[in-house]
Design goal:
By secondary structure, the chain is α+β, with helices and mostly antiparallel strands. The chain is built from nine helices and eleven strands.
C-alpha cells in the first residue's frame, strides 16, 4: 500500500481534467476507470479511504488515487474546494527510463503555497490547451514535474538528517496550529499526518517550546484572542468562535484563567491605555 502508484519517468501524462472543484457529498465513492489516475489537494477536512486504508485529510494534504482502486470520501458538514487533476499515460519518449513511486497520501507541510502554484500552472495551461497545442504539452510536463517532486519528497531521494527533519515537522505543526485555531485540533491526527508517533511528538515539542503541545495550542488561542480584543471591534462571542472556543462561558473562563481578567475587562483596559486618536495624529493598529 505504501507505494501503490508507480510511473515511468519517460511517460508523458495525458491530462483529462484539471480544475478546482467544490464537493459537498458526505458519502462519495468512486473507482477511476481504465488507466486514469487522480491527483487531489484539499482545502477541507474529510475522511478518505483508498483500497481499504483510511486517512484523515486536512487542508493542504495531497492524495493520489491510482486507476482501478476504490476511493471513498466522507466529508465534514458543508464540504469544500479541492484541486483536481485526472490523467493517464499518453506516450513514452524513449526506452531509457526510470520508474518512480508515490504513496497515496502526502501530508500538508510548508509547501502548501508552492503546491497550490503547481496545480494552478497545470490548470491554466490545460484551460488553454484546446486552442494552443504547446499549452497541452506544457500542462503535461508541469504535471510530470509535479509527480517527480512528490516522489522525491516522499522517498529517500531527499533524505535529511533526523534532527533537521523533526525540526521541519515541528515548524509545520506550529504553522498548522496557527492557521486552524478556529477548529478543534486533534493531536493524534497531527502526529499521524506528520508521520511521527504521538509520544515522540509530545517529547520533541516540549523540548523545543518548553511547554506541552496542549498548552501551546491554548496559549496561541489566547494570544489571538488578545489581538482581536485589542485591535478590533469584533464581538466577544465571535472572537471565542474565531479561536476555537465557541461556548461564551467556556471562552470567558479559559481567558480569565490564562490572563487573570475577563475578555471584556481586557478590552476595556486596553482601550483606556491606548493613545487618543485625532485627525492630526491618527493612531495605527499594530
Amino acid at each position: 500500500m505504501k507505494n501503490i502508484f508507480t510511473w515511468n519517468s519517460s511517460a508523458i501524462p495525458e491530462i483529462l481534467r484539471a480544475n478546482r472543484y467544490f464537493l459537498n457529498d458526505r458519502n462519495f465513492s468512486t473507482i477511476y476507470c481504465g488507466p486514469t489516475h487522480a491527483l487531489h489537494m484539499y482545502d477541507y477536512d474529510c475522511e478518505m479511504i483508498i483500497d481499504g486504508k483510511k486517512f484523515d485529510i486536512s487542508k493542504g494534504d495531497i492524495t493520489l488515487s491510482p486507476a482501478g482502486i476504490k476511493t471513498s470520501y466522507n466529508l465534514a458538514e458543508g464540504g469544500g474546494w479541492h484541486y483536481c487533476t485526472h490523467f493517464r499515460p499518453a506516450a513514452i519518449k524513449s526506452r531509457k527510463n526510470t520508474a518512480f513511486s508515490i504513496p497515496p497520501y502526502i501530508p500538508a507541510d510548508n509547501d502548501y503555497s508552492a503546491n497550490e502554484r503547481r496545480f494552478l500552472d497545470i490548470i491554466e495551461l490545460f484551460a488553454t490547451a484546446p486552442d494552443l497545442r504547446i499549452a497541452s504539452f506544457g500542462a503535461s510536463n508541469a504535471l510530470l514535474q509535479f509527480l517527480i517532486w512528490l516522489s522525491l519528497k516522499t522517498t529517500n531521494s531527499l533524505k535529511m538528517p533526523a534532527n533537521k527533519s523533526i525540526e521541519n515537522k515541528l515548524k509545520a505543526i506550529e504553522n498548522y496550529i496557527d492557521i486552524n485555531l478556529d477548529k478543534a485540533i486533534n493531536i493524534r491526527k497531527l502526529a499521524s499526518r506528520n508521520n511521527i508517533s504521538q509520544n515522540y511528538l509530545a517529547q520533541m515539542f516540549r523540548k523545543k517550546n518548553a511547554m506541552t503541545l496542549q498548552r501551546y495550542i491554548l496559549m496561541r488561542r489566547i494570544d489571538k484572542a488578545k489581538f482581536l480584543l485589542s485591535g478590533s471591534d469584533m464581538p466577544v462571542k465571535e472572537i471565542g468562535s474565531n479561536i476555537g472556543l465557541p461556548d461564551p462561558r467556556h471562552f470567558n473562563k479559559t481567558f480569565r484563567k490564562a490572563t487573570g481578567q475577563s475578555p471584556t475587562s481586557f478590552r476595556l483596559k486596553g482601550k483606556s491605555l491606548s493613545p487618543a486618536r485625532s485627525e492630526n495624529h491618527p493612531g495605527k493598529d499594530k
